[in-house]
Design brief:
With about 100 residues, the chain is of the alpha+beta class. It contains two helices and three strands. Helix 1 runs antiparallel to helix 2. The two termini are about 30 Å apart.
């Protein structure tokens, strides 16, 4: 019982480390034609939005559409980074069981 509690505590500590590491990883998402760039962390927190081509600012509807596309692109990339980090940690914490998370 004590051994199981110790392993659970170690797993919780490892998860904290992973979340902290994911905060240091930055990914970029882009709109069509690269007019907007969105930077987010591996924990999916938006760090910045850059209007690479300011001509997009004159068309409100296109701006809104492109922002959604750029944010979703960044989130998709962050999800992949997050998944990779979690799989790696799961494999390290539970050798032989990492295949469950693939």
């Amino acid at each position: 019982m004590f051994d199981m509690m110790k392993k659970l505590q170690q797993a919780q500590e490892e998860m904290k480390k992973i979340k902290a590491r994911l905060d240091t990883i930055s990914v970029e998402g882009y709109s069509p034609e690269g007019k907007i760039k969105v930077n987010i962390t591996g924990n999916r927190k938006v760090e910045g939005i850059i209007f690479v081509d300011e001509s997009i600012l004159s068309d409100k509807d296109q701006l809104e559409d492109y922002l959604v596309i750029a944010v979703n692109d960044a989130i998709e990339k962050a999800d992949k980074v997050n998944e990779t980090e979690m799989k790696s940690a799961a494999g390290a914490m539970m050798p032989g069981m990492g295949g469950l998370f693939k």
